[in-house]
Amino acid sequence: FPDVPDSHLYREAIERLVGAQVVNGHPDGTFRPEDDVNRAAMLKMLYKASGKTPDPSNVACFPDVEPGSWYEPFVCDAAANRFVQGYNDGTFKPDRNVSRAEAIKMITTVLGIAVPELTDINREILRFVDVSTAGWYTKYLSAAFSKGILPIAGQAGPRFYPDWPLLRGEAAAYLYNGLNVKVAEDREEVEEELQVEEQLEEQQRVQFTQASSSSQAPQAIVKDVTFPFTDTARFEEKTPSSYRFTLSSPAVVETSVMLTKGATGKVSGRLYRRGEGGIST
Predict the structure, then answer these.
(1) Is 125:105 a contact under the CB 8 Å cutoff?
(2) Which CA distances in Å does 154 have to 130, 159, 169?
(3) What Å distances lie between residue 237 and 180, 214, 266, CA to CA?
(4) Beta strands of 99-248 (E only): which ranges?
């Protein structure tokens, strides 16, 4: 954009989000990074950034949200999911400029970024003379600063100005940082789940090895059958019973395994696909 030169503070964030079609320029080819962002436009950017699709059944949420307007799906879906709330008079004020504090709350709630409750420790992060530790927005700002959404270039100093209107360039920087935080949190969550799965698999492997090494362990049962099939068998302890069959074409296979009525214990079933080399997935 001619008004976003290489030296612009938020050039990378703006161009990344434009490339991802999260934000757009104007018909005259400019971006206008110094323009204000209203509340409705901020929500639309967040929905596009997060990949969320508004539920079309969420309509008529606020009296000042015009039915059939471009912003109604985003505002009403956000209200239904409790991402946003209206003002005390019951309105949403979609055309009002979104403030810095409001934008941070929207970013954390819509993107699903964890916001811890305030403690003496995370209160210390907010060393601004104009940020109240009792404000409705304080915990969102604290999370934003601790996770790296804030600060952005050009917003340093003893004051944060939480009620100031957010500009388009600043909004791009906020959102770009918020997306990076979300990606990092998702990656950490997946890694934790994988660690738990690996621990469970190791426990199962040890249990299976111990059971296999027992001289009194019953022998596994393997049967070649023609699909579909039913079978009734007596199982002892943790004895596996396998049924092998071949499908001549792709199919949706449903299996059901259960204990005889009145029987005690537990039984589980798994369906595997064998590869040509004999390895199952």
Answers:
(1) no
(2) 17, 12, 11
(3) 50, 12, 10
(4) 221-224, 241-244
Contact present, 50 and 42 (Cβ < 8 Å): no
**Contact criterion met (CB below 8 Å) for 271 and 255:** yes
Distance CA 93, CA 202 (A): 55
What's residue 102's pLDDT? Answer: 97
Peptide bond into 151 cis (omega under 30): yes
Q: Which of 269, 276, 264, 258 is nearest to 237 (CA)?
A: 264
- Predicted confidence (pLDDT) per residue in 35-76, tens digit: 999 999 999 999 999 999 999 999 999 999 999 999 999 999
More confident residue, 30 or 236: 30
Q: Where does residue 110 rank: exposed (0-12), middle (13-18), buried (19+ CB within 10 A)?
A: buried
Q: What is the DSSP letter of 259?
A: P
CB 55 within 8 A of CB 79: no
Phi, psi of 165 (to 5 degrees): -65, 140
Residue with tokens 């992060």: 125
pLDDT in tens, 139-163: 999 999 999 999 999 988 899 999 9
Considering only 46-60, 135-149, 173-187, 225-239, which range has the smallest mean pLDDT?
225-239
Task: Measure the CA–CA gap between 146 and 138, rounded to whole angstroms.
Answer: 12
Can you tell me which residue has the tokens 């606020």? 62
Within its chain, how far is the Cα of 34 from the centroid? Answer: 30
Count of residues in the chain: 281
pLDDT at 215 over 60: no
* Global confidence as pTM: 0.68
**pLDDT average, residue stretch 12-32:** 94
**Of 197, 121, 182, 100, whose CA–CA distance to 148 is shortest?**
182
